[in-house]
Please model this.
Amino acid sequence: MTGRTLRLRRLRRLTPGRGEEGAGRAGRRAASKVAAPKVVALGGGMGLSASLAALRRITGELTAVVTVADDGGSSGRLREELSVLPPGDLRKALAALCGDDDWGQTWARVIQHRFQSEGDLHGHAVGNLLIVALWEQLGDPVQALDLVGKLLGAQGRVLPMSAVPLELQALVRGHDPARPDEVDTVRGQATVALTPGEVLSVQVVPPDPPAVPEAVAAVLDADWVVLGPGSWFSSVIPHLLVPELLDALVQTKARRVLSLNLAPQPGETEGFSPQRHLEVLARHAPKLALDVVLADEAAVPDRESLADAAKRFGAAVELAPVARQDGSPKHDPELLAAAYDRIFRMHGRIGPWR
Model:
């Protein structure tokens, strides 16, 4: 038995199970006419933000587990200067969890605000500075993020997937257009996301990073786990490269839904079909099972091939209109929320929230 397996078992004992919650919690749920499902959403960047903006509309039991490999912009500068986790994707997740009232929307704008100047503050986001300041004050990244969430009135919790900053490395064919058949190692999330070549695989450095225990516990205790949408190689797959987190995703009794992107991303997934996204995911995590693959009905030209790719994960395909009506490749929060709600009701086990 590995040390990682022992740690997972200890976490499972510390995490209340469905049959072990005790009379107090069971009584609270029985007394509630509509108790929400516990949902964990994994990803980073704008893809995770879109998922969170939808999920907070249908559950208050929501945890975001966020990638920590960003090395560009304000996050990259703070990471390099202060040796901290990159705060940018964590900030975006917190902003997405802000409510629609004046308080929530005001704070969402404030933490997303970037300074414009000729000096060192140029390009820094207010939320990044606030998060890093609390990290330095408290010395605990999870406690600091919980405090920021409380300040914002965030409708859910935000956790980093690992307590150490990670470097993303990718094998890319044709990264140099002058050598289209050669395979190079490309380093850094910002570079990988914009590579002109074909990304073959990714890994993180250090290669066996520790998962944040609270993130592992949340996955093990969830009713549903949502992976994606987002930048496939730089925001979605990195979660599968943290061994303890991957073990939790494989072992959890939660149901798992994979939310596909609306269009290939210029650079890292240029020319990818929806089914190819699944094939890449399977190469990086062959033991991972899924229950549902969610895709926009207008973004799937070959439904049979997608269904075949999903079957390899043991998953059903759900097609729904989830894109904004303006033609941009962005998810509509209300439509995405409706799709998630339908999936939770139709594919979930009979849960206490229904």
Remarks:
- DSSP finds 15 helices and ten strands in the chain.
- The beta strands are 39-43, 62-66, 157-160, 167-173, 183-187, 198-205, 224-227, 255-259, 292-296, 316-320.
- Residues 12-33, 350-354 have pLDDT under 50 and may be disordered.
- Residues 138 and 144 are 7 Å apart (CA to CA).
